[in-house]
Amino acid sequence: MKSLLPIIRLLLTAEPKSMVRGAALSVIVLLMGAALLGLSGWFITATGIAGLAGIGIAFDVFRPSAGVRFLALGRTAARYGERLLTHDATLRALAALRVSLLRRQVGLDARALVRLRGEAELTRIISDVDALDGVILRLFLPGLAALVTHLIVFLMLGWLAGWAVASAVLVGYVPFAAFVFWRLARQSVVPSGQSESQAQALRRGIIDMIRDRQALILRARIAKREDDMLSLDGSSRKMMRALDLSDRNAAAALSILTAAVTGLALMVGAALVARGAINPATGAIGVFVALALAEALPPLARGVADYGKMTGAAERIGHAPKTMPETTAKSHAKLDAPVLTIDTPNLTLRLDVGEAAALTGPSGGGKTSLLMQVTGMAASDGILIFGTRPDELSESALREIVTMVPQRSALIAGSIRENLSLSGGTGDEEMWQALAAVALDGVLRARGGLETQLGEGGTGLSGGQARRLTLARALLRKPKLLLLDEPTEGLDDATATLVLSGIRKASPDAAILATLHRSVDHPVFDISKKLNISR
Amino acid sequence: MTRPQQQDTKSSRRLANERIIVPVAHQLRVAGALSVASGLIWPAQAGALAWAISGWVMGEMNRTNIAALFFVLGGLLSAHLKRAAGAYLFDAADQTIARERAALISREARARAGISSAEIAALAVQKLPLLQPWITRYHVAMMRVSILPVVLLAVTFWFSWAAGLVLLVTGPLIPVFMALVGMAAEEASRRQMVEVGTMNAMLMDRLSAMLDIRLLGAIDRASAEFEERAEALRVKTMAVLRVAFLSSTVLELFSAIGVAMIAVFVGFTLLGEITFGSWETPLGLGEGLFLLLIAPEFFQSFRDLAAAWHDRAAGLSVMAELEELDAVERVAFLGAARATAPLSGPISLELCGAAVAYSERILPLPNFKLNAGESVALVGPSGAGKSTTLEAIAGLVPLALGHITVCGETLDEDKADAWRARIALIPQKPHFSDQRLRHWLDPDADEADLWGALTLAEADRIVARLPDGLDTHLGETGGGVSGGEARRLMVARAVLSGRELILADEPTADLDPETAALVIASLKRLKDAGHSLIVATHDPAVFGAMDATVKVKP
Asked: Could you list the residue ranges that cross the membrane (chain A) (predicted)?
C-alpha cells in the first residue's frame, strides 16, 4: 500500500480538476442508479395502491414520472462524463510518468549508463506504467464512490423508508463486501504480482533471445532458450489461472451477497409494513435500492484483483536509480583558456584550438574512463575544459562544447537522416558534408541517400560503415572539443587514414582527442601521448 | 471503403475466426449454455419479488419469507452457473493465448523477420492477452442475446402487448447502432495497436542508444520525441475509449428510455389512466413490478454484446498484426539448431560459386577451400561481404546460388546442425545476454575450465578486475568492460565451446597491438592444437599469421 500512495498522489494531482469532477460524477452515477430503481419501484407500488383504492385521479403522477426520466437520462450523461474525465486524466498522468522515467536515465553516471539494459528499462516504462492505470480507475475511485454512495444511501433510505431497512442494506453490504474484497486481495496479491513479473521476464527474454539469436543458433541452444521462454509463459499463465479462480469466486460471492441483501431488505421491509410503520410503496424502495447498489461492486473487484500487480509495478517504478549528484555551483567556460588541460598522475596534456592529440595505452588502462571524465560523466579531478572542471559546467553548456563518440556508439532504427538528426536540426547539405568527411557519401548515394533505412540498432550497415556514421553524427555537432574513442576500430588502414584526415579537415577549429592503438604516428595528430598505468 | 477492401476484411475476419474461435468452439458453447441458464433464473427471481411486494398491498405478508428464500436460492444458483461458465471461458482463452504465443516465439527464434525485437515482445506479451476478452465475452454475449431477450420479450408480451411493443421497438435499434459503431471501433483499436508497437520499438532503440544520446546533448530532443509517441498513444487510446464510452452511453440511453417508458406505462395503467395495452385481464401490481424488474435485463444482453463488440474489435486488430507478421519475408537459418551429433570426419570446407541474396541484390561469395588444421584470412574492403561469407559458412543465411561443401557433404537443412556442432563464431559486435558472465561463457563449464579458457584468451585479468568476477552482469553490448576486453571475452567463449573450426569476424578490431598479438598467438595456439580458423580481418598482423589469404571483392 505504501508504494501505491505516491502513485495515487501523482495520478490525482496531474489533472486535479478532472479527477474531482470525475469522482463526483462517479458517486452521482451510483446514486442516480439507486434512486432510479427505488423511485420506479415506489412509483409502481404506489400507483398500484392508488389504483386499488380508486383514488387514481388524485395521485400526482407527473412529478415521479418526470423524476424517473430525469434520473434515467442524468445517470447516462453522468456516466459518460465520469469515464471520459477520469480516463483522460489518468492517461495524461501516465504519459507524463513514462517521459519522466525515461528522463531519469539522464542523471545516470557513465558506469551505469554503459551497463544500462534496454529491455529492463523498457518493461519498466511500458508494462509497469500500464499496470498502474487501474490504481485510480479501478481501485481508488470505485472504492471511494461505493463507500460514499453507501453512506448517502443509508441516510436517504433511513429518512424515507426507516432506519431498519437502511441499516439492513448498509450492514448487509459494507462489511460483507469488504470481507469478500479482503479475501480476494489476499488470494490474488501473489498470483497477480507474479504473473506480471513473469510476463515482464518473458518480454525481456524474448527481446534478449532475438538479439542474441545468432550466438544461440551456433551453440545449438536456441531450442533450449525457446523452451525456457515457453516454461516462463507456462508459469505466468498458471498464475493467471489462480488469479482467474479467485476472481470468479469473488464475483460469485458478490452476486450471492446482492441476492441475500435484497432478500433481507424484502423481509425487513415486510416486517415494517406489517407493523404499519411504512406503507408498502415505501417498503419497496429498500428492495429496489438494494438491487441497484449491486452495480457498485464489480468494478471494484477488478481493481482489487489487480492489487498485487499494481503494488509490484509501483515498487519497481519507485526504485529510483542512483544518479550523479547535481552540481550546485555552475561555472562558466572561459574562452581564453586552453580548450582542454589534463593534469593527472597518469597524464599531462594541454590541447588548444585546432590541435589534435592521439592517446595510447593498453586495453583496460583507463583511456575510456578518462574520456568519460572529460565529458563530465564521472568525477573529473585534474581536468579543465576552457579553465573549468567539466562537472561544474551545466549539462547543456558542456554538451555544446564537448562531443564524444564512444567506443561502441549506437545507431537507431530509421533513416540515415534520422540518425544524423540526433545531433540536432541540420540541413541536407551539412549532412552530406559530414558524410563526405568520413568517406561514407559514396556508399550511401549508391544505396538510398539520406533516406536509406536502418534496422533495429542501426543494422543494415557493416561494422565499419556504422562506425563512420557515428563519426559523421558527432561532426554535425560542431564541437569545440571532439573526443573519439578508438575511431578507427573496424576500419582498414586506407579508410582509417581517409576518415581521420576527413574529420580533421571538416572541423579545423576543434580540438580533437582520440584514443588509438594503431596509426599512432599518423600525420593527422599533432601530439601523441601514452597513458601511464597506475593502480 | 471500397468493395475489394470490404471483402478483404470479411475474409480476414473469417480467417481470424477459424484460427481463434473454431478450435475452442466446444468450450464456448458449453459456457454459453451455462450463462444462458443463469440468465433465465432472473425472471423467476423477479417474479418472486413482485409476488411478495404485491402481497404487502393485499395484506398477504406470509408470502415474503418464501419469496425471499426463493430469491436468495435463485441468486445462489445463478452465481454458480456463471462461475462454472467462467471456468470454461478461461480455459478457452488460455489455450488460445498459449498456442499463439508459442508459435510466435518459436518462429522468431527460427526465422527472424526484420521487425524490432521490442515490437515482437510487445505483441507476444502485451497484445496477445487482448484476445482473451474477445474469446471470453463475444460468443457468450452472442448466445445470450439470441435467447434471453426473446424469452423476456415473450414474457412481457404475455402480460402486456404495449410494454412488449416498447421493448420490441427500442431493443433492435441497439444492434443497428452497434454495427455502425463497430466499424469505427475496429479502426480505432487497430491504430492503437500500431501505436503500441511503434512506441515499444522506439523506446527500446532510444534506451539502447542512451549513452550516445546523452553525449550528443540530445536528451531533450529524444525525450521530446518520446513524449510525442507517449502522447500519440494516449490520444489513440482515448479514441478507442471514446468510441466505447459513446456506444455504451447510447445503449444505456436506449435502455434507460425503455425502462422509464415501461415504468410510466405500468404506473398509469395501474392508476387506470391508461386502459389499453393489456389483454383481457388488466395489469395488476405484481405483474407491473415484474415487468419493471425484467425490462433492464432485456437491454442488458444487448449492452453486453455491444461491450463485447469492442473486445472483438480489439481482438481482430491483434489478429491483423499477427497475420501481417505471418506474411513478412523471413530469412531462415539452415537446420533446427538442436543439439545433434557432430558431422564425422576431419574438418573440410569448400565454397563453390556460392552467392547470397542480400537486400535485393546477389552477393557473390569467394571460392576457396579449407582443410583440417588450416587457417584462412578473408580480406577485403568494408562492406565487401566478409561477414556474410562467415554467416553463410555457419549456415545462418541460405545460399541463392552455388553450394558449400562441409566435411565432404553439401551444407543443407539436414547437415547444418551437425556441421555447426563443429564450429564456433566470434561476431564483430559483442552481445551479452542478461545473465551472469559465467553462464554466458559456458553454463556447463566448471571453474577450472573457465579460468583456463580466459587465460588462453588473455581475459583472466579482465574478469579478476570486475567487482563481481564471473558473476558480473554486463551491459548488452559489453558495457562495463572496454571494447578490447569484450572481444577477448568472446574469444574465451569460443575456446570454451570446444569446436574445431573457429570463425572470427575482425577478432582484433579494437585491440591494441600488444593484446592483438597475444590474441593472434592464442589463435595460433588453437591452430597448433588442431583447430581450423577462418578470420575476416583488416589487420595485416592477423592475415600474416594465417596460412592463406582469400580476397573478398564487393
From this structure: 20-37, 43-62, 135-157, 163-182, 250-274, 280-301
Which 23-42 residues of chain A touch chain B by CB within 8 A? Answer: 36, 40-41
Q: Which domains, ranges and CATH numbers included, belong to chain A?
A: 4-192+241-318 (1.20.1560.10), 340-530 (3.40.50.300)
Residue A212 pLDDT class (50, 70, 90 cuts)? confident
Distance of CA B195 to the CA centre of its chain: 14
Helix (H, G, I), strand (E, B) or coil at B503: strand
What is the per-residue DSSP string for B206-227?
A: HHHTHHHHHHTT-HHHHHHHHH
| Count of CB pairs separated by less than 8 Å, A with B | 477
Say yes or no for a CB contact (<8 Å) between A267 and B68. yes
Helix, strand, coil percent content, chain B, rounded in steps of 5: 65, 10, 25
Whether residues A517 and B339 touch (CB distance < 8 A) is answered with no
Surface of B (105-124) touching A: CB under 8 A: 105-106, 108-110, 112, 114, 116-118, 120-122, 124
What pTM was estimated for this model as a whole? 0.83
Which are the contacts of B301, defined by CB distance < 8 A and separation ≥ 6? B39, B141, B144, B145, B148, B149
Check residue A524 and report its DSSP letter: T
Whether A59 and chain B come into contact, CB under 8 Å, resolves to yes
State the amino acid at position B159 in one-letter form.
F
Query: B160 Cβ partners below 8 Å, 6+ apart?
Result: B265, B266, B269, B277, B278, B279, B283, B287, B291
Nearest residue of chain B to residue A224 (CA atoms): B338
Q: What is the pLDDT of residues B227-241, one digit of tens each?
A: 998 899 999 999 988
Q: Any idea what the Cα angle at residue B365 is, between residues B522 and B351, rounded to 5°?
A: 75
ipTM of this complex > 0.90?
no
Strands B361-364 and B348-358 turn out to be antiparallel
CATH class of residue range B12-332: mainly alpha
Whole-angstrom CA distances from A439 to A443, A495, A506 are 8, 8, 12
Nearest to B197 by CA among B319, B313, B100, B115: B115
Q: How far is CA A513 from CA A306, A476, A486, in A?
A: 54, 17, 10
Q: Is A81 on the interface with B (CB under 8 A)?
A: no
- Residue-averaged pLDDT of chain A: 86
Residue B542: pLDDT over 60: yes
pLDDT exceeds cutoff 60 at A378: yes
**pLDDT at position A327, please?**
52
Q: Phi and psi for B277 in degrees, rounded to 5?
A: 100, -15
Burial class (CB in 10 A: 0-12, 13-18, 19+), B127: buried
Confidence band of A251 (pLDDT split at 50, 70, 90): very high
CB spacing of A489 vs B509 below 8 angstroms: yes
Q: Contact B79/A259, CB-based, under 8 Å?
A: yes
| Cα–Cα distance measured from residue A118 to residue B212, given in angstroms and rounded to the nearest whole number | 13
Beta-carbon contacts of residue B439 (< 8 Å; ≥ 6 apart): none
**First-to-last C-alpha distance (Å) of chain B:** 48
Mean pLDDT of chain B: 85
The structural architecture, per CATH, of the domain B348-551 is 3-Layer(aba) Sandwich (3.40)
Domain locations along chain B: 12-332, 348-551
Distance CA A295, CA A28 (A): 13
CB contacts, 8 Å: A82 with chain B: none
Q: Within 10 A of B306 (CB to CB), how many other CB atoms are there? A: 25
- pLDDT, one tens digit per residue, over B120-175 is 998 999 889 999 999 999 999 999 999 999 999 999 999 889 899 988 888 777 77
CA–CA distance, B542 with B521 (Å, rounded to integer): 10
Q: Tell whether the model's pLDDT for residue B41 goes beyond 90.
A: yes
- In sign, the C-alpha dihedral spanning A99, A100, A101, A102 is positive
